Amino acid sequence: MRTLVLAEHNSTNLSAATLCVVEAAKKIGGEIDIMLVSDAASSVVEEAKTVDGVTKVVHFSDPRFKNELAEDVSACVVSIADDYDYFLASSSTSGKNNLPRVAAELDIQQISEVIEVIDGKTFKKPIYAGSCISTVQSNQDKNALTIRTTSFDKAPTGSGNATVEEKSAVESNSRKTGFVKNELTVSDRPELTAADIVISGGRGMQNGENFALLEAVAGKLNAAVGASRAAVDSGFVPNDYQVGQTGKSVAPNLYIAVGISGAIQHLAGMKDSKTIVAINKDEEAPIFKVADYGLVADLFEALPDLESKI
Amino acid sequence: MTNFKYMKILIPIKRVNDYNVKVRPNQANTDVDLTNVKMAINPFCEIAVEEAIRLKEAGKADEIVVITIGDDKHQEQLRTALALGADRAILVKSDKTVQPLEVAKVLSKIYEQEKPDLVIMGKVGIDGDHNQTGQMFAALTGLPQATFASEVNIDGSKVVVTREIDGGLETLSAELPAVVTTDLRLNEPRYASLPNIMKAKRKPLEEMSIESLGVSVDDKVVTMKVESPPERQEGVKVETVDQLVDKLRNEAKVL
After folding, report:
1. What is the pLDDT of residues A218-269, one digit of tens each?
2. Sheet of strand A86-90: strand arrangement
3. What is the pLDDT of residue A94?
4. Minimal Cα distance from B179: which residue of A?
């Protein structure tokens, strides 16, 4: 039994999400290979080699692969698909974009957002925005799974000693998609889905400028800053700040929700956090139902106070 | 605004629970309980319909065809899409629940018949949370894909799409015909007006069976159990920031 993990990287480092996917692959059992697609010989290959439990790193490189278009990534996977029984990717926007394309080409019904591997054919996944958990069983010989990374630990790095197989480029049959540009959010803060501490603001922040209050606390805690859908929809912060069903799922050690009422939508993206703090002036806010520690207070007083005391 | 050629947009839509309804497992824990639950067009599909209407209003599209798969009740969502501004509708009848791969197979058959220039669909259904169908359909038809769109512009024979990705935004340009899946911020869908709801009753709605398209509905993946997620215990209220910091340091030990 062999599993192929589709790696994610930023050309310099392997994404932490990929390490969680490797850990999920271990629960399935059998050999695990990592597949990397990049535009050049890459230091990421060296890092991938050392991931615990990995047998081989398969590296497809071509200058045209810089932006990892779904059409090219899926063509690469399909070219080596005969060797594998499982195809795993994280449920990031990249994994969600690429893996269903692979699955359809291999006539596989993919299982998305796996939160638990029961055995090689049986998996748990949230449905209806996390309102229910579904246990599904696959009757297929080959399977494709996206992994909700917050439900799995990171595989250790440094200890592994995988072999490397360099592959020449496999192009999609016809290149009909072109990259135009990226506008990536630049931040000194840790990445939202990888941070140990996340502090998020909601509609109660009132405007984008007030997010500086959260940034100040985040700076002291080395935390990532997130937001509720209401805050994003109100234009306070960009969409990639969004935590929730339609945004990112996070599960840090500490999640601080400030001025967030706690819509189901938001809870779906953060309720697996280990410790949850809610600061809200409305004591009836549903967020208090999931918070370990609730503080009914005006956030404009509480945040500077908190900043001065940590 | 001059069109170089006739531009047809295909919009697959899905009937799901109204997004305000909290769905629960049934008593036997075999499935969710949708008895008496209000149903609607999936919000992301509504955004797809709206985008197509805006393209038509801007003179960049000529015809909007909506399609769904399911039983007779699905006519309701097709009529809503027609009332919003779609020109005609197709109902592919299936009594069994279809999974994303099967939907993609049905859509590729319809694609061969209809030959649309652009397919816009929701990125995910708020019921199964799969986020697969658009990408699968693109794979089966060999079409370029631009998923999770927050901006869509037709530029001659291309569609330029800004995508919401984890680190920010990415812009792609895809040759038409292409598949675009919608993210939340693409637009804010309109409501159907009463006169348009009346008019929609006279718009064409064609029906065909899923078998006639040669797509079989099988059980590649079956649901064994549906349960409520583990409840989180409600915690304690603290009175002051000092108490909060103390609890986080000494009780939760997270600071």
Report:
1. 999 999 999 999 999 999 999 889 999 888 989 999 999 999 999 988 998 9
2. A111-114, A143-147, A86-90, A2-6, A31-38, A56-61, A163-167
3. 96
4. A177
Query: Is there a contact between A203 and A231 (Cβ–Cβ < 8 Å)?
Result: yes
Residues of B in Cβ contact (< 8 Å) with A181: 170-171
SS3 assignment, position B5: coil
- Residue bearing tokens 């290979």: A33
Q: Give the pLDDT confidence score for residue A174 in this predicted structure.
A: 61
**H runs (alpha helix) in chain B:** 43-57, 75-84, 100-114, 133-141, 194-200, 241-246
**Count of all residues that appear for chain A in the document:** 310
Q: What is the pLDDT of residue A301?
A: 97
Q: What residues form DSSP beta bridges with A145?
A: A88, A111
Q: Enumerate residue ranges in chain A where pLDDT < 70.
A: 171-174
Chain B positions in Cβ-Cβ contact with residue A67 (cut-off 8 Å): 170
Euclidean distance between CA atoms A27 and B32, whole angstroms:
28
Q: What is the sign of the dihedral through the CA atoms of A190, A194, A195 and A201?
A: positive
- For A113, phi then psi, to 5°, come to 60, 45
CB contact under 8 A, B173 and A289: no
CB-nearest partner of A93 from B139, B166, B225: B166
CB A239 within 8 A of CB A253: no
The predicted pLDDT at position A173 comes to 60
**Rounded (5°) CA angle A187-A188-A190:** 90
Determine the pLDDT at residue A82. 97
Taking the alpha carbons of A197, A201, A205, A210 in that order, is the dihedral positive or negative? positive
Question: Residue B121 corresponds to which amino acid?
Answer: M
> Which residue in the set A109, A271, A294 is minimally distant from B220, CB to CB?
A109
Q: Which of B101, B100, B105, B102 is nearest to B141 (CA)?
A: B105
How far apart CA A123 and CA B1 sit, in angstroms, is: 52
Strand segments (E) across chain B = 8-12, 15-17, 24-25, 32-33, 39-41, 63-70, 88-93, 118-122, 145-155, 158-165, 168-175, 178-182, 205-209, 221-227, 236-238
Structure tokens at A276: 């949850």
Residue pair A297/A281 in contact (Cβ under 8 Å)? The answer is: yes
A177-184/B168-175 β-pairing: antiparallel
pTM exceeds cut of 0.95? no
CB count in 10 Å sphere of residue A307: 18
Q: What is the pLDDT of residue B4?
A: 59
Q: How many whole angstroms separate alpha carbon A65 and alpha carbon B150?
A: 24
Q: Decide if A230 contacts A254 (C-beta within 8 A).
A: no
Token duo for residue A46 = 């060296």
- Mutate which of A99, A254, A292 to disrupt the B interface (most B C-beta within 10 Å)? A292
Low-confidence ranges of chain B (pLDDT < 50): 1-3
Q: Name the residue among A92, A292, A310 with its Cβ closest to that of B255.
A: A310
CA A234 to chain centre: 24
